[in-house]
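Hey forum,

I'm writing up a methods section and want to include a predicted complex as supplementary material. The small molecule is magnesium ion. I've pasted the protein sequence and the SMILES. Can someone with a working setup run it? I'll credit the forum in the acknowledgements.
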Amino acid sequence: MSTSETTVESLVGGEYKYGFVTDIDTEVIPKGLSEDVVRLISAKKGEPAWMTEWRLDAYRRWLKMEEPHHWGNLSYPPVDYQDIIYYAAPKNVKPLASLDEVDPELIKTYEKLGIPLREQKLLAGVAVDAIFDSVSVATTFKESLAKEGIIFCPISEALREHPELVRQYLGSVVPVNDNFFAALNSAVFSDGSFVYIPKGVRCPMELSTYFRINTANSGQFERTLIVADEGAYVSYLEGCTAPKRDTNQLHAAVVELVALKGATIKYSTVQNWYAGDAEGKGGIYNFVTKRGKASEDAKISWTQVETGSAITWKYPSVILQGDRSVGEFYSVAVVNGRQQADTGTKMIHVGKDTRSTIVSKGISAGQGNNSYRGLVKVLPRATNARNYTQCDSMLIGSRCGAHTFPYIENQTSTGRIEHEASTSKIGEDQIFYLKQRGLNTENAISMIVNGFCKEVFKELPMEFAVEAQKLLGVSLEGSVG
Amino acid sequence: MLEIKNLQAKAGEKQILNGISLTVNAGEVHAIMGPNGSGKSTLAQVLAGHPAYEVTGGEVRFEGQDLLDMEPEERAQAGVFLAFQYPVEIAGVSNAYFLRAAYNEIQKARGKEEMDPIDFLDLVEEKLKLVEWGPEIMSRAVNHGFSGGEKKRNEILQMAVLEPKLAILDETDSGLDIDALRIVANGVNKLRRPDNATIVVTHYQRLLNYIVPDHVHVLAGGRIVKSGGKELALELEAKGYEWLTEEAVTA
Ligand SMILES: Nc1ncnc2c1ncn2[C@@H]1O[C@H](COP(=O)(O)OP(=O)(O)O)[C@@H](O)[C@H]1O
Ligand SMILES: [Mg+2]
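Reply by user p_vandermeer:
Happy to help. Structure tokens for the complex are below, copy them as they are.
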């Protein structure tokens, strides 16, 4: 390995800026999981009886399932599910009359994270639901959205205020027994966001949820449900961070998207959970099930920028149920240090003339290991289905790895599936070329990496694109000079 | 402006430059010729600071500064520009974005104001004329999918925008048809000023019909084996390199 390659490697991996802990009075329940714990969570949320039963059903199914430990291209010690706190909430979170009532410590926390919650400082054009450990602490712009008939609130509140709507769709895309982590989430999820966009309404602003894990040894199990009624449009953003801790923390979320006839849902994630230190100590285990179901002429688009977590296991998927529905997946996954990511998508073509696009950009640095795993499945009824997959990997240094596992199942003779893949090493020659034009190594790498990710970044909403570029800037920032 | 004394360099275990001495003054054009593998590109890359080459002896001063002690970007900021024999592709980064970033880095290093995208486009518009290009080229990714000729022309465009004090052109003529050659040479000639200097590295005499050098040096076996005026290039064209390389081997 040449010297400049070492410099390149040391460059990736700047300081994690969000690793602080908020000192706040927190109510936690004892570690461990049982039917009583499930009942307790449900009671704390004031849920209807059917919901408690729904959770218990999920819990009983989960008990019979096995953790998919050797399934992904990942390795980690077994998780002790009795050693996790399943519910932690800052005390004194009551329904708020206004955001001015939010605990100042929390306001400060979100400000440090770049998410202003005070009305006067709200991000223009973005409504935020802030989730701290197990509960939602603030939701902005709720009233102005309500004028359009849009519901944007914590899912715990939706269960109380709009139980029929939640009951109709919860688990309709990701059944409780879908997989080990989804079943666990269904049993113990404590909060998350609920969105409903009425027929024909175009949501006038970006909706956004910001997740923060604070309490040590706690898991975060959030649940997001987004329903876009016929012809509706919504763009939704999700961001996440966690303090630096030297033990691993579990994040097992479920996100369900329902796009009814002619509706469009655009879901963007910038995931920056704590990734652990250079030796691989600590960090978030991110086991997430994200899936959308698209009816006739509907469109679901996932865009993700994954830079954090010790382990990422995540396959945002689209069931192209209705004829002419469209599914998209744009992804940038960065691994560095000892990070491992096994991520990709599933596009299930059920309806006729359905189209899907997959663009995956994997960046591996340090001793990170990045795997793309994607399934394109075309069912017999899905005549004239189209898929285009492009899967590019970039290696920074020589101790990291990139792998692609594309699975294709075409059960029609008319389906057309195209797959392109490339692997490139960020080259000494590219860096030298840019340096010869006056850029320093850091800026040179950042320019090359941003160029590599461009097709994905251009799918992100404007403000988020800038965020994402900065985030890559941060993870590529380093100690040179 | 540039003073090279007994410069020696190697790549891996291979010794390539075996003691090169050369002085270039402001306002001059020097041509460096020589057969394939004689070390022409190595000399160019060493002057620009490519990390694959290790300097094993000698010194280089650029405007009184120790050039070999500077990072490649510091050399660029000080006014050294290399037009690459094989320009590198950068996917997803537009020519406009890249060139403005480079321009601003150099401005900053010179203690000048950075330029915003709108003003920069005005500046580029002028420079594009020099290489007879329209503005479309600015929105294409840097050298990505460019033909060999377009890549060379793009190097000259960058040189025009960055206005170096010392430009080193490494085989900028290779792979160009006669029209492109004329455009490139024309561009270089228009950029000549009394306060800058150019080193033209070439295998063929052809380019020197368009860019007339003040001095011609012949490189063989990592040494300058002969120097002369522009007529030396014609002599090489007629006689080939063999008579000089033999001298070099026996020397
Ligand atoms: N990075 C390198 N590693 C190893 N050998 C090299 C490297 N660069 C050049 N060489 C060798 O050095 C000699 C001179 O190469 P070069 O400077 O490219 O010659 P020219 O430009 O005159 O054709 C050649 O034998 C070439 O193979
Ligand atoms: Mg050469």
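Some notes you might quote in the supplement: Chain A touches chain B at residues 2-4, 427-430, 432-441, 443, 447-448, 450-455 (CB under 8 Å). The radius of gyration of chain A is 22 Å.
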